[in-house]
């Protein structure tokens, strides 16, 4: 018996060895190196460096801008997302799945694409130019809401889908008005999922590097764009490290809060999903709100597409053909089509790495512990594997940039560094997609298969694979889309002769010339199309991945 327990413990450690090694080299080491850069000056410990950096007025402005924009965008996302969550998860109507997929696409769109789309919508030649919102905080808020409202729809909608309709129907039968029913019956039942979704949206808004950078430039600095400016413009690495430490602490605190909120008992947890019903007259306000939200989501993308097809006031594919050139005045080192090929190649590698690591992590986290040492080991590994959730892509990229630059870990010029960084960014999506599925498999099925003579491999093929293959495809889709549009970490790590398409788009909009701007629009449409197709395919699998966040 003791020998069997020991073998299981050793097997657990062996299963976790690869992700622990990758996490140690490409996450723990860069983060600790970043912390050391912030606290150690001229070889001696100096905590005053962090205090002096955080005492600067520009740092105060960046922190305050991050806080108030994140709070405002979170409130707007919840207010706009709640009606859509109800309509898309409780009502049955034609094209419901298509509308739901369309509203979920923004979540996986590259942040650079979102920024370019709103610049085209609100800019001098855009249909909403008369509002004079281009380059203002309102434009940034609009981009943040556009990007994150899908989280509310998916997360709250999944909870709403499982609500027992009978209490609300009983309250209505007793004469309660629809608003009273929602306020006294439905809202209390949904409160845990709403608060959890809001905390995650706030986290995503606070770490929205690409949206703030493309819509606000360096005029309106968030914490992340301030880190970027300190690193690439002012060359103030200790200052950037100190600000990254602050962000790390805040993000970890937010993730801890979100995890505890998800742990609140949900009265819908063990109920079967309620079948959607046909709309009634009382549902008209929610339907109208959903249609308005659909129009708001479609407007930037439609404007982006139209702009990419217009050259000198005429319809043309010239902007797309120009992607085969380095742009006006040789803006690019290589044609944008090469950058697209680089992005696709990196995305494939990063997706494969994220799937391998994610499967191993999910298997370790969800395995059944049969001894105290095994249980303790699994708990420690669980906490270790969740650490990447506490670091934004910008902080990760910065940490990799300043630490992995000398033997024996000189990876700064390695073609593997960007795929590994993107795999770590996508890893939470993979883990959060697979963990609920693996945890839901009854271990007695595996035991039954083993008792009938099936080996370990055959047990996995007959019990686990039929349940996991759809979520695994969904996880691959999310990882591919996230990698294809990743900009935060890549902006620090890319090689100048092999930029990714998001990096090229940002470079194009930063250089004057109608040709460069048209190429940025065309490149953004290509990225948006790729991620939208992936999102539509994932939606057909009906895997509740986003709700896990």
TrEMBL record:
Bilayer-crossing regions: 12-35, 62-86, 98-118, 138-157, 200-220, 240-263, 284-306, 346-367, 379-404, 416-439, 472-494, 514-538
Bilayer topology term: Multi-pass membrane protein
Keywords in alphabetical order: Cell inner membrane, Cell membrane, Membrane, Transmembrane, Transmembrane helix, Transport
Domain of life: Bacteria
Classification via PROSITE patterns: ABC_TM1
Location within or outside the cell: Cell inner membrane; Cell membrane
Pfam (any one): BPD_transp_1
Gene3D superfamilies in UniProt: MetI-like
Record domain ABC transmembrane type-1: where: 63-258, 340-538
InterPro entries found in the cross-reference section: MetI-like, MetI-like_sf
Keyword Lyase set for record: no
PANTHER family the UniProt entry points to: INNER MEMBRANE ABC TRANSPORTER PERMEASE PROTEIN YDCV
Family, as annotated: Belongs to the binding-protein-dependent transport system permease family.
Name of the protein in question: ABC transporter permease
